[in-house]
Amino acid sequence: MNAGMEQAIAEPRALPLGPIGRSGIGTWGVGTLVASEAALFGYLLFSYYYLGATSPTIWVQEVHPSLKLALPNTILLLLSSVAAWYGEKGVERQRRGQALSGFALAFVMGTVFAIVQYFEWRVKSYGPGTSSYGAIYFVTTGVHMAHVIAGLIILLALTGWTALGYFGPERRISVSGGVLYWHFVDIVWLFIFSTYYITPYLGFGV
């Protein structure tokens, strides 16, 4: 047995817990996921602009889309992103109460957004089979809703794991990844909202 091995046995050291802080391969994994999903939404939104620009007649189903539900819902989703950030800062600063309130509030806001979006679909005078506009609208918002549901599951998991004391200033890469994903969901919605609810007012597809 050589001297180095004898020293290792005589002076055992604690094994590392894993990635420290926000650094680690998991962060790159979430970043890659976000990039690939952003490309998906980019294709969907490109389809909207392409079809609208090449249509010889009025293409949009709503020349003046109602903002009564969509605008407050957009603001709510943006505030949920702030709440998730607040929760992440709570983990970073070892304030479990702040972390729990941030993640729980983000989850509640996201849930309300999903419910309101459902009612938004219900009041539409057209469906996915009505026209190419209806198809692309429901596909885009439907795919986004699937991402919202995935994000809600992540937020619920973060809330539970935070309550159990799994996270801390050093052990928080899962928190950072989950919050990054939720920010992505919110940013994508801004592009969707601007596309389907704002551009018709600017004369696009009309």
Give me the secondary-structure topology.
Elements: H1 3-10, H2 25-54, H3 70-92, H4 96-122, H5 132-163, H6 173-198
Helix pairs in contact: 2-5, 2-6, 3-4, 3-6, 4-5, 5-6
Quick structural overview:
With 206 residues, the chain is mostly helical. The chain has helices at 3-10, 25-54, 70-92, 96-122, 132-163, 173-198.
Describe this structure in words.
With 206 residues, this protein is mostly helical. It has one domain (28-202): Cytochrome c oxidase, subunit III, four-helix bundle (Four Helix Bundle (Hemerythrin (Met), subunit A)), CATH 1.20.120.80. The protein is built from 6 helices and no strands. α4 runs antiparallel to α5. The protein starts with a helix and ends in an 8-residue tail after the last helix. The relative contact order is 0.17.
* Biggest beta sheet attributes: none
Q: At the first level of CATH, what is the class?
A: Mainly Alpha
Strand content: under 5%
Identify low-pLDDT runs: none
What is the fold-level CATH name, i.e. the topology? Four Helix Bundle (Hemerythrin (Met), subunit A)
Described by the principal axes of the CA atoms, the overall outline is elongated
Q: What class, by secondary structure content?
A: mainly alpha
Could you give the distance between the termini? 82 Å
Average of pLDDT: 87
Number of strands: 0
In the CATH hierarchy, what is the architecture at level 2?
A: Up-down Bundle
Helical percentage: over 70%
- String of helices and strands: HHHHHH
Helix tally equals 6
What is the rounded Rg?
A: 22 Å
Number of domains: 1
